[in-house]
Design goal:
The protein is of the alpha/beta class. The protein has 9 helices and 14 strands. Helix 1 links the parallel strand 3 and strand 4. Helix 8 runs parallel beside helix 9. The longest helix is centred in the C-terminal third of the chain and has 12 residues. The radius of gyration is 17 Å and the shape is globular. 45% of the residues are buried.
Length: 251
């Protein structure tokens, strides 16, 4: 199993998961042209994608999904709440994830996990294949016991460290947006991400990617500084960016 990013941040998100001859896209916050370019940059083609999973309805994760699915006739998986949150038009093959029940895509097990985020029925995902576990965990305002239980034991993890609380407080966002981002249904701060990493199974976690870093309310230097102690023992640590995402990582 391998994973890579088309881009990670408030201007668009997309993560590729590859196993055997299958290619899965998690979220699509880009135009079709941009998706095609970014996928090809990673050495693949959009025609190789076998399915699209959607975490929630916010535009930076969903806006590119309907046109991409229609152009390439792709199956789309999302929760009923995400589907009903807005008019997505006709989707060629829609699969609703009912009650966060696990499902199979060929021999890849997909475990949807409910997360605290200000969306209708948001989900993040743990993927299991060949004894390995890959977790994708962004867009949540706090690490609930439920979330921690499901993401505690991963071999590889994409985790958000969205904002620095002081930068957010003094930054350009209006008060209502600051409250939303920094609240329990918003996004993880650097400190919240560090706290979670201090509690995970460090003996198993071999690959960490820190993503969804705000370009207005955070900086790479701040995130690295806050996370330095808890990432010191992880063999491979990368930081995803908005424009380039990150290259393929083997789990």
């Amino acid at each position: 199993m391998r994973f890579a990013s088309l881009g990670s941040g408030s201007r668009g998100n997309g993560t590729l998961v590859s196993w055997k001859d299958q290619l899965l896209l998690v979220d699509c916050g880009f135009t079709i042209k941009e998706v095609e370019r970014r996928v090809e940059r990673l050495g693949r083609r959009v025609t190789e994608i076998t399915a699209v999973l959607v975490t929630h309805e916010h535009a930076d994760h969903l806006k590119g999904v309907p046109p991409l699915a229609r152009k390439y006739n792709l199956p789309v998986y999302m929760t009923p709440g995400t589907y009903r949150s807005r008019d997505l038009g006709k989707l060629p093959f829609l699969h609703l994830i009912e009650g966060y029940q696990p499902f199979q895509l060929d021999d890849l097990e997909v475990l949807p996990v409910a997360v605290p985020h200000d969306a209708r029925e948001p989900a993040q995902f743990v993927f299991k294949a060949a004894g390995k576990r890959l977790g994708i965990l962004t867009d949540l305002g706090n690490i609930s016991a439920h979330v921690e239980n499901h993401f505690y034991d991963c071999d590889a993890l994409l985790l958000e460290a969205n904002h620095d609380p002081q930068m957010l407080a003094s930054g350009p966002y209006p008060p209502s947006l600051k409250q939303r981002v920094g609240g329990p249904w918003g996004h993880l701060s650097n400190q919240q991400a560090a706290g979670f990493l201090a509690r995970v199974n460090g003996e198993r976690l071999r690959h960490l990617v820190v993503g969804h870093i705000s370009q207005k309310n955070n900086s790479l230097e701040l995130a690295k500084r806050v996370l330095a102690e808890v990432t010191a023992q992880i063999p491979a640590v990368e930081y995803a960016c908005q424009d380039e995402g990150f290259d393929w990582i083997s789990v």
